[in-house]
Structures are given as structure tokens and as C-alpha cells.
């Protein structure tokens, strides 16, 4: 203070303003009492402010032994850091003393003290402090079992930057990753009331017990920014964005450290508050690691990017891609594959994800702005082996067709290609056979698939053992389905049924005509073969007969010429004409 007066060069100076004194007027009052020899009671609530004020006022041992810096340091080292409750309170009071508390290592020492006590055996530690009225017995009895999450509530009252310091120190000490993840979820439920629905009232329970500050802590994040004129809502959004970014950065890398529902809620708020894209991508990868644990309500994330669709379908597509990449990595790696085989989650995970995607498609298909391409890409992202039954996919397709009645015939056929009719159950087949929105070709495929299943069941003898019981069970299902079907479906089914019967009749007619033509062709072929065989046989036999006759005639003719030289010329010419006619017939 002497230096400040000397540097002012003002002989009429009567007042000195110490605006940047850490701890404010309360700390200065305690310092003044100490200078005048008045007893000052050092407590966990005022020790951090006194230590920073003493450093600011340069109250060192060079001026006098046992000065304020020495006494506050001794109190911090031997009293505060040995107590769980005092360490929490001092670290909480350091929120208003930045950067002095950081430079004097008060934050680091308190964080390490809290981390050491959280990882140690809690017996004998005053662990029951939660910012609420003190309990009758502040330490657990010997027979009382201490819960593993005993430190969650105490640590959750800290500001986000100090909470990150504590969690980082706890990680170094070797705390179980699932407990660290649970503490992060507990902290998020307190400071982000909109993150988890059930945590709306939990934020009010953790109000600050210290009323020394004019802005007491009420379970929310209240940061005093000097000279700011920003809108309170924008400041609150900025604070929440900082909390989300900090929580993402400290989540343990292990798969099940936090629940998938928590990650999806965090991802929803991250998209809403425009968190850094790199952190959002990291969070999406974390969700993909345990995507099979997700539920449909958690996936229905609104689109905050001014997209045409109501829900963020592209986000779910990216999550599914991260899941498939993770599954492929586990399959290709021998060590990871052995772990996944021991847990038995690899095939079942894909089936659960397939059911989840089908339910999601059914929900978002009601959006008229959802394009056919996005629907088809998301439906075909999973391999065929992931779906053992396509009933859920059929429901999604039917819902999409209902919400988009203006689709062309080509687009409807393209949409139905993502579904395998052979994987539909009997109830789904019966509904599809009556669905007027499906293309006629798909209806025929469904009917054929249903008949094939029934034929296979009869061939295997499964329906013979059941007898008429199964058939009687199927009739009520069919009647119930018909009663629940709108009248337009039934009228459309009647028209489609007539077309199907006409096609069947024409097909049978064509088959009959084909068989008749085939029989006629065979008869004609046989007759033609007989005629060829008969013609060849008669020609050769007649030729040999005529040849033998010719030899006889020539012999007789020569004999007659020798014996009867007076035969008329006309008779001779007539006999010569016969062989000529024979030659012509042979040729």
C-alpha cells in the first residue's frame, strides 16, 4: 500500500481503490483485522480468499515472521487437505478467485486431495457432506456399508472446470471406469436439467451452503462475467455448451463406461447448442460402439440444421455406419472377436439394431418430407443376415406408402425391393395380400411365399401333428385382421382378387393349350415317321420287282425275235416302250 501511495504522486490522496483484490471486501476486512492484531478465525469458507489476498498484498515473511501467507499456507496444508469436506468447500470457493487460485496451486492440491480420498477406503473419512444439512453422524459406522458412489453428490457441486480437474486426477489414481462414467452422468443430470427428464428436480437439491457470496449457487451454472451485455439466454446456452464439450472430453474410452441413452441425450443437446464438430463426431463414434443398447425415443432427435425432415435421419445413418465399422473391426481382430464371442453379443447386436432401425423407419416414415432415397439407404444399410423377419420393415414400408400416396408405380416397386417377401410371417403375409397400396407384383410374391411356407410345413409334417387346432387359431387371426382392415382395403382386395383369379385361369388355359399342342405335335411326328419309312420301303421293293420283270421280258423278247422273225413292227415297238416307262419311273 505504501508503494501504491508513492506511485500515485498525489499529495491530497485520501482514498485507494483496490478493485482487483482477490476475495473482495470480505477478504480485505479479515486482512485488516489480522494487521491490527484482532483474532481471525480461519475456516474452509474464507481460507482461499485470505490466501490469495495475502499474496496480492505481499504479506511475506520478509516483513515479519508468522505473516498471513505463512499461516494460510499452513492451514491449507495441515487442515484443509486432510479433510474431505473442507477440500470440497475450498475448491468450490476458488471459483471466484481465478487466476490467483490456479497460480497458487490451490485448485491442483484440492483436486488431488479429493481424488485420493475418493479412491481410498472411505472408512473414517467425513464423506457424508452433500451440501445439505449435516447428518447426525457425519462418518459411517463400522458396520455400515459405504456405497461406491458416495462421492458423486459432493463432486457434482463443483464448477465444470474444477470437476474436470477432479475427474482427471481420479483417472490417474486408477478409479474404475464405470464409476467415473456414473459420476459424469450424475453431474450432467444436475447441471443440464434438460438432458434427462427425471433430473429436473435434482438440480434444486444441491444448492450451495455458503451464503457469503451475493450470487449463491442454486444448482445451476451461474458465471459472473464483468461488463457483459449479452442476453441471459445466450449466456446460459454458452455455459451449457461449455459443460457438454468438457463432459465429452473426459468420458472414459471404454465401451460401457456410460449408457447409450446418456450419450444420445448428450448428442441431442450437442447438436442443438452447436458444439464443436470434432467433439460431435467423437460422440457419434461412441454411440456407434454401443448402438445396440439404444431405444427408439432416444433416436428421435429433431433436425436442428434447417433440414426439410422433422427428424435427423442423416445422423442415425452415421450412427449405423459407425456401428457397422465397429462390428467389422471386432470381427477382423482375433482378440476382440474372442471377447465378443464370449459375450455372445455379435450376432444378437445386429438383430437388435435391425429391429431398432425398422422401428425408427416406421416412426419417421410419417414425415412427408422424407425422401425415398433416404428411406431406402437407411433400410438397406444393414446386411441381409441381420434380419430374420421382415415384419418390421414391412410396417415401415406400409407407413411410408400411406404418408406418400403420390408415389408412382415405379417408385412403389423400388421401395418394396428392400423387403424380402420370404421373411414375412403368416400374419404379415395376410395383411400384405389385402394391402391396396402395394404393387400387384408384390402381392403375388407374398401369396406365392405364403403357399410355399404352407407346403413346406405340410411336407415336414408339422401341420399334421397340430391337426385342426392350428387352423382354428389362424381363422380368428384372419377375421380379426379383416375387421381391423379399412373398407377401402377390402374393396381393393376384392378387385385384386378378381385380377389374380383371372391371371390364374389364363395361366391354366395356356398350360392346357400347350399340352394339347404338344400331343398334336407328337402325333404328327409319329405319322410323318411312318410315312417316310413306308415310302422308302415300297420304292426299293417295287424297284427290285420291276428289275426282275425286266430281265424276264428281255429274255423272252430275245427268244421271240430268234424264233419268230416275222412278228409285226408295231408289236415290237410296243414291247420296247415298256422298259422306257420303267426307266422313267425309276428315275
TrEMBL record:
Residues forming coiled coils = 500-534
Signal peptide: which range, if any? none
Q: Which GO terms describe its biological process?
A: protein ubiquitination
**A Pfam family of this chain:** NPH3
- Which InterPro entries does this UniProt record tie to the protein? NPH3/RPT2-like, NPH3_dom, SKP1/BTB/POZ_sf
Q: Where is this region: Disordered?
A: 327-347, 565-587
Task: Tell me the ranges covered by the NPH3 domain, including all copies.
Answer: 149-453
The family database entries (PROSITE patterns) matched by this protein are listed as: NPH3
Keywords, ordered alphabetically: Coiled coil, Ubl conjugation pathway
Top-rank taxon: Eukaryota
Q: Where does the record place Basic residues bias?
A: 577-587
What does the record give as its pathway?
Protein modification; protein ubiquitination
Similarity comment: family membership: Belongs to the NPH3 family.
Tell me what this protein is called.
NPH3 domain-containing protein
Species this protein is from:
Manihot esculenta (Cassava)
Amino acid at each position: 500500500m505504501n508503494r501504491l501511495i508513492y506511485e500515485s504522486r498525489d499529495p491530497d490522496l485520501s482514498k485507494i481503490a483496490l478493485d482487483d483484490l482477490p476475495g473482495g471486501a470480505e477478504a480485505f476486512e479479515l486482512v485488516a483485522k489480522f494487521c491490527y492484531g484482532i483474532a481471525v478465525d480461519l475456516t474452509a469458507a474464507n481460507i482461499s480468499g485470505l490466501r490469495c489476498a495475502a499474496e496480492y498484498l505481499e504479506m511475506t515473511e520478509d516483513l515479519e515472521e508468522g505473516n498471513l501467507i505463512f499461516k494460510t499456507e499452513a492451514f491449507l496444508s495441515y487442515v484443509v487437505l486432510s479433510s474431505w469436506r473442507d477440500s470440497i468447500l475450498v475448491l468450490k470457493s476458488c471459483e471466484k478467485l481465478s487466476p490467483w487460485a490456479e497460480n497458487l496451486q490451490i485448485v491442483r492440491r484440492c483436486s488431488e486431495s479429493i481424488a485420493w480420498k475418493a479412491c481410498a477406503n472411505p472408512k473414517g473419512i467425513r464423506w457424508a457432506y452433500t451440501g445439505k444439512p449435516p447428518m447426525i453422524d457425519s462418518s459411517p459406522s463400522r458396520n455400515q456399508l459405504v456405497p461406491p458412489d458416495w462421492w458423486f453428490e459432493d463432486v457434482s457441486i463443483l464448477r465444470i472446470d474444477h470437476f474436470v480437474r477432479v475427474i482427471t486426477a481420479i483417472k490417474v489414481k486408477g478409479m474404475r471406469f464405470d464409476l467415473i462414467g456414473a459420476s459424469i452422468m450424475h453431474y450432467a443430470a444436475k447441471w443440464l436439467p434438460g438432458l434427462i427428464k427425471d433430473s429436473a428436480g435434482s438440480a434444486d437439491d444441491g444448492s450451495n451452503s455458503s451464503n457469503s457470496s451475493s450470487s449463491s449457487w442454486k444448482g445451476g451454472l451461474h458465471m459472473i462475467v464483468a461488463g457483459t451485455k449479452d442476453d441471459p439466454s445466450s449466456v446460459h446456452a454458452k455455459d451449457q455448451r461449455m459443460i457438454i464439450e468438457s463432459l465429452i472430453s473426459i468420458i472414459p474410452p471404454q465401451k460401457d463406461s456410460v449408457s447409450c441413452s446418456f450419450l444420445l441425450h448428450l448428442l441431442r443437446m450437442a447438436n442443438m447448442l452447436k458444439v464443436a464438430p470434432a467433439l460431435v463426431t467423437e460422440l457419434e463414434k461412441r454411440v456407434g460402439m454401443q448402438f445396440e443398447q439404444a431405444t427408439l425415443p432416444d433416436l428421435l432427435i429433431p433436425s436442428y440444421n434447417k433440414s426439410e425432415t422433422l427428424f435427423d435421419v442423416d445422423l442415425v445413418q452415421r450412427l449405423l455406419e459407425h456401428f457397422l465399422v465397429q462390428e467389422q473391426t471386432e470381427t477382423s481382430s482375433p482378440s476382440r472377436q474372442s471377447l465378443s464371442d464370449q459375450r455372445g453379443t455379435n450376432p444378437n447386436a445386429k438383430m437388435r439394431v435391425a429391429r431398432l432401425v425398422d422401428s425408427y423407419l416406421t416412426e419417421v416414415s410419417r414425415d412427408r418430407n422424407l425422401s425415398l432415397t433416404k428411406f431406402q439407404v437407411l433400410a438397406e444399410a444393414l446386411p441381409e443376415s441381420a434380419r430374420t423377419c421382415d415384419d418390421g420393415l414391412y410396417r415401415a414400408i406400409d407407413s411410408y406408402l400411406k404418408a406418400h400416396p403420390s408415389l408412382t408405380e415405379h417408385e412403389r416397386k423400388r421401395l418394396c425391393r428392400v423387403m424380402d417377401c420370404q421373411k414375412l410371417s403368416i400374419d404379415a403375409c395376410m395383411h400384405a395380400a389385402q394391402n391396396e397400396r402395394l404393387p400387384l407384383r408384390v402381392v403375388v410374391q407374398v401369396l406365392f411365399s405364403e403357399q410355399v411356407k404352407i407346403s413346406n410345413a405340410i411336407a415336414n409334417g408339422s401341420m399334421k401333428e397340430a391337426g385342426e387346432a392350428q387352423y382354428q387359431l389362424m381363422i380368428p387371426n384372419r377375421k380379426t385382421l379383416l375387421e381391423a382392415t379399412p373398407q377401402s382395403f377390402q374393396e381393393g382386395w376384392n378387385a385384386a382378387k378378381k385380377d389374380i383369379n383371372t391371371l390364374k385361369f389364363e395361366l391354366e388355359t395356356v398350360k392346357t393349350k400347350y399340352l394339347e399342342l404338344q400331343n398334336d405335335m407328337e402325333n404328327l411326328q409319329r405319322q410323318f415317321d411312318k410315312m417316310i419309312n413306308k415310302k422308302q420301303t415300297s420304292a426299293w421293293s417295287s424297284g427290285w420287282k420291276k428289275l426282275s420283270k425286266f430281265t424276264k421280258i428281255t429274255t423272252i423278247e430275245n427268244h421271240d425275235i430268234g424264233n419268230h422273225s416275222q412278228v409285226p413292227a408295231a408289236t415290237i415297238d410296243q414291247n420296247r416302250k415298256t422298259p422306257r416307262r420303267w426307266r422313267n419311273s425309276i428315275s
